[in-house]
Specification:
Shape: globular
Number of strands: 13
Number of domains: 2
Oligomer: single chain
InterPro entries: SBP
Distance between the termini: 36 Å
Helix content: 25-40%
CATH architecture of the largest domain: 3-Layer(aba) Sandwich
GO molecular function: thiamine binding; thiamine pyrophosphate binding
Number of helices: 13
Protein name: Iron(III) transport system substrate-binding protein
Largest sheet: 10 strands, mixed
Strand content: 15-25%
Keywords: Signal
Organism: Pseudarthrobacter niigatensis
């Protein structure tokens, strides 16, 4: 159990999906240039991301400064960052966006807010993990159901999300969300609703599928504003809840709890966090240089060593924790039609918020 826990805990994202961080990220961080050759410009790049939590934003600001970039990091949940990019498409504030998964970036692309750019490292990644044109993959992250392994044995733990509301012992013992503005929350529901696809059903989902959503909200313990899930687990208020693999290691240390994770038979949603050039940036050349630098094998390799992430860059994987590489190699990914999800997610969110989220 502890080995699996360690592997999952080590799988840190650069955030969907989750992130794909699990919520709104910390305030903006700014790095001042030090004159290193990669940046070599006085312009400050504005970077939108949902993946600057757990110290990643501070690390990136410092490393970017060493490379000669001035950056201002603006953090937000995945859905919120997506909406912001789309709302600002005619007068963009951001120069670069990263951390958003395929589902979000496809929305931004469809709204005409991204500009095609092929990074210098494009040949070192699987282009199929992005769109091979405007957004390019950086890291992988698993979207997981985690539980207090100090209190619940693996045999007694839930085997799937649906166990939470269908089995008496788990009702009221799991944290349920009170908002759908994050990548992690939306990917959890994408993973659940995709199992109940019915083209003749409401928004492409069968009545049974919407029943699952209703029961999820009815039987869960609502998230508490400004109170971390792990704090609630540590206090015994709840025993389990959603989490991207990125947060587990730090949260375990901070709150002195041990968490194991559930891998349903259908697999888990896998978020691939991307990077893209914002259309209309007035600092295009500098933004392209930043993308070339950040996604490079050297930087992604350093990031993997620092945060135990799973880089997509094949050359960077040599520097990643071997246990993390092995974990993702053996991880069962849920088969999800992301085109179907992307097409319907906005309407799903609206229905959930109006009908079930009370």
């Amino acid at each position: 159990m502890r080995k699996l826990q360690t592997l999952v805990a080590a799988a840190v994202a650069a955030t969907l999906l989750a992130g794909c961080g699990g919520g709104s990220t910390p305030p903006a961080s700014t790095g001042e240039a030090s004159g290193a050759p990669a940046g070599a410009s006085g312009d400050t790049l504005v970077i939108y991301t949902n993946s600057n939590g757990e110290g990643r934003g501070d690390w990136l600001a410092a490393k970017a400064a060493e490379a000669g970039f001035k950056i201002e990091i603006v953090g937000a949940g995945g859905a919120d960052a997506t909406n912001k990019l789309i709302a600002e498409k005619n007068n963009p504030i951001a120069d670069v966006a990263f951390g958003l998964n395929n589902m979000y970036f496809s929305q931004v692309k469809n709204e005409g807010a991204l500009e095609a750019y092929q990074p210098a490292w494009a040949g070192e990644v699987d282009k199929g993990l992005g769109d091979g044109e405007t957004y390019w993959p950086l890291v992988k992250q698993a979207i997981l159901l985690g539980y207090n392994s100090d209190k619940i044995s693996k045999d007694a733990a839930p085997k799937d999300w649906t166990d939470l509301w269908s089995k008496d012992e788990f009702r009221s013992r799991y944290e349920r969300v009170t908002g759908l503005g994050t990548a992690t929350a939306q990917l959890v529901f994408a993973g659940i609703l995709s199992r109940y696809r019915d083209d003749s059903g409401d928004l492409g989902i069968s009545d049974d599928g919407w029943k699952q959503v209703e029961q999820y909200f009815k039987n869960g313990s609502p998230a508490v504003a400004k109170t971390d899930l792990f704090a609630r687990i540590a206090s015994g208020e709840v025993d389990m809840g959603q989490m991207p693999s990125s947060i587990i290691a730090d949260r375990e240390k901070s709150f002195k709890v041990n968490v194991d994770t559930v891998i349903p038979s259908v697999g888990v949603p896998l978020a691939v966090e991307q990077i893209a050039l914002v259309k209309g940036t007035k600092k295009k050349e500098q933004a392209q240089k930043f993308i070339d630098w950040f996604g490079s094998a050297d930087v992604q390799g350093e990031f993997a060593q620092k945060f135990n992430s799973m880089p997509v860059n094949k050359s960077a994987q040599a520097k990643a924790n071997p246990e993390v590489v092995d974990f993702f190699a053996g991880l069962k990914q849920q088969d999800i039609d992301w085109n179907f999800v992307q097409k319907n997610m906005g309407a799903w969110v609206e229905k959930i918020e109006l009908e079930y989220m009370t």
